[in-house]
Amino acid sequence: MKRLIGLVAVLAIASASALTFGTTRSQAGLITGLLSCPGVTYSHPFSAWGDSNSYFMATGGSFEGANSWSLSGGAQVVPGNEPFFLNSKSDSHSLLLPPGSSATTPAMCLAALSPHMRLVGKSSDGSAVHVDVYATGVLGLVKLPVSANIAVSNAWGPSGDVSLLLQNVLAVTNLGKTSIVFRFSPIGSSTAQIDDVYIDPVLQE
After folding, report:
1. Alpha carbon of residue 3 to chain centroid
2. Are 123 and 186 in contact (CB under 8 A)?
3. Is the pTM of the predicted complex or chain greater than 0.70?
4. β-strands 162-163, 116-123: how paired?
């Protein structure tokens, strides 16, 4: 029900924007683009924990093969997969985030109806993993005004479900874009490790 309300809110904002500025062909295409991101494959990776929602893997979010993320401050892809192997039984790597480091995803489509994130992670002291959200615009990356802390413990486990709806709406209504970048970092002196980063569409069965 909560996500259905979110769907109605997003469509209302999009409709209001179209009515305010006049519905042109490009604006109509933008509203249509709110409904989904093309070319993504959905699965139910967190079903073992009672979460039957559909997710798609964030670009490079399994940390297997060639690394596509931008790493700084000592962040690195390391041997050792999360123990549940949500993406594949053959996976063998994860992302290590020491204090002061950060890891930035490639730009990816994140429609306003895809506002939830979940991953598998842990941190040395049980602190959350921080994520900032950016939209790509004509001037490069534009930091959106709301960030989130993704709850993990000091042992491998699925994170909490973080809603990113507000950021997505801002990306669409302020910048006319749905191309989003996520930047992950540990909190304080914690060392964090994350794997299998998934995006959850709001339109659920």
Report:
1. 16
2. yes
3. yes
4. antiparallel
